[in-house]
Amino acid sequence: MSMIGREDQLKSLNQNYASSKSNLTILYGRHGTGKTTLIKEFIKDKKSFYYKAVPADDFEQNGMFGRAAGVESDSYYEIMKTLRDRGIMLFVVEEFHNIIKTDSDFMSDVSRLVRDESKVMVILSCSSVAWVENSMVKAMGNYAFNINAFMKLKEFSYSDFINRFHNTEPRELLYIYAITGGNPGYVDRWNENISIKENICRLFLTDKGAWYKEALNYVKDEFREISVYNTILSCLAMGKNKLNDIHEYTGYGRDKISVYLKNLIAREIVEKIFSYDVFGNENTRKGLYRIQDSFIEFWYRYIYQDWSRIDVTEPYEFYDSHIEDRLEEFVKNAFIRIAGEMLEILGDMHKLPFEAVRKGSWYGKNGDIHLIFEDKDGNGIIGQVYVDDRKVCMEDFDRLRENVQLAGINGRFYYLFSINGFSDDLKADNIATIGIEEL
After folding, report:
1. pLDDT digits over 154-167, tens only?
2. How far apart are CA 311 and CA 209, in angstroms?
3. Count of alpha carbons within 13 Å of 35, Cβ hemisphere only?
4. 395: Cβ–Cβ under 8 A, 6 or more apart, which residues?
5. Which runs of E-coded beta strand occur in 196-287?
6. pTM of the model
């Protein structure tokens, strides 16, 4: 896995290491975001101790820790102190939650080591985002005060993502970004020398494919009642994105659905989306949910719902009949994220018509406004994405302006993004047209 997109985090770790004071860093991010790769790059030229914790009881865990260190002791502190006395000042423990959950002495021993006079650096890494953000501090108690830094690894931004590919057409880059969700671990498995179709067939559509059960296994690792979570995610993947839609389809009680959605949101699998706060509330759709992780959305949309057919259908045949014609609509949310990222960059470079102080999206009953950037005086920059299999024309723009009026937004400037280009009639001083190639 390349270090592209992780340069800032590597620099930050090296700065902490060069500090004259001891420090404790929590490094976390979901599986595949590149934590181990970052750690390997960081420790490669340093004397260090590395340990990856597996689920085990306290006795077995301590024994494995000691064997990895080559030190016999029932105290984590004594093991690490012995290594420190041998000249090791960098300690890395991956999946450290597997220790804390069974051994309350671990954080006490780590904190004691960090507070000693001799300088050390300790990195505790974890793949459970929800546990770190919602349960870790309670599990650590007062020892959490010894943490000096939190470092969360997220999926690639589009600008980082495109630097991983050198021979791929812009349109294909959009599709790859949408399917992989920008997850570095998934991106690394993608073969840019073969087509999107061939990649999907080899990775998803055979029982030997790396992603045949990937999303299912990820959800299974995070939750117990997998059948309920599968059903809710399937509903969202089908576009049933209101609590009442899910209730009517599944028969589950609304309170029950709310609890499961809350758990999915905590793990950044699902998000609740809020419409831009404007005066056009009577035209606004409210209480909407969607799958935030586009890799999981792809799996539940195309694999889960037709899984029984995959084993009895040739991969290329399944792709042709169940995936190909529906891909453009799937990439829409990824395209919106990319367009938003571009407008953010233009804003940082002071190349937008004015400085935005409010940003968001509007979800209307007659159509959505994908991106809204508004200044302090209420002037709006509107960004809209189109994935239709035709060129965007003046009729599309007129429909957008109608929704802008319904939303009560003062749309002054428009940035239109299209996969398939624009018709010649779409011309005005306040319209910027941006094709996929320009991204």
Report:
1. 988 898 888 888 88
2. 12
3. 26
4. none
5. 270-273
6. 0.87
